[in-house]
Design brief:
The chain is built from 5 helices and 7 strands; from the N terminus they run E-E-H-H-H-E-H-E-E-E-E-H. It is α+β, with helices and mostly antiparallel strands. A 5-stranded mixed sheet has the order 3-2-1-4-5. Helix 3 packs across helix 5.
Length: 136
């Protein structure tokens, strides 16, 4: 799995967020991908200092608590097994991937183009909120 021409890719499985390794694969490092990784690591490290209410809010956004970040070389099957897939760019932030070809659909939409499985995009919404806070 490689990044796209104007975006980086990431995905979650259980408690881990995965990214293609830029050094090993010869990819340009993504500033937004680094920020997302830093946000996850920072939130996990601050987890012990949070009170129960903050932890409940965090779990509400994450669905499952993402506590680890890993970079590596991954085949497509790893992405197809993901709980959530998202792309990132400096200009657009974090965007959920809803479908990969005819292989997997991550989020279903109804006729009004409204999300019917919001929990699948909760991690991406949480990340985007954190990115927006950094920009402000």
């Amino acid at each position: 799995v490689l990044d796209g021409p104007n975006f980086a890719i990431g995905w979650t499985i259980d408690d881990t967020c995965y990214f293609p390794c830029t050094k090993t694969l010869g990819l340009l490092p993504s500033i937004t991908q680094r920020l997302v990784a830093d946000i996850i690591i920072m939130e996990h490290n601050n987890n012990d200092d949070d009170d129960d209410n903050d932890n409940n809010n965090k779990k509400k956004y994450l669905g499952t608590t993402i506590t680890k970040v890993e970079w590596g070389v991954y085949p497509l099957r790893n992405v197809l097994e993901a709980d959530q897939v998202f792309v990132m760019s400096t200009t657009r932030g974090a965007i959920p991937v809803t479908k990969i070809g005819d292989k997997k659909e991550f989020v279903a939409y109804n006729n009004n183009n409204k999300q019917t499985k919001a929990e699948l995009c909760s991690f991406v919404a949480w990340i985007q909120k954190r990115l927006d806070e950094i920009e402000a």
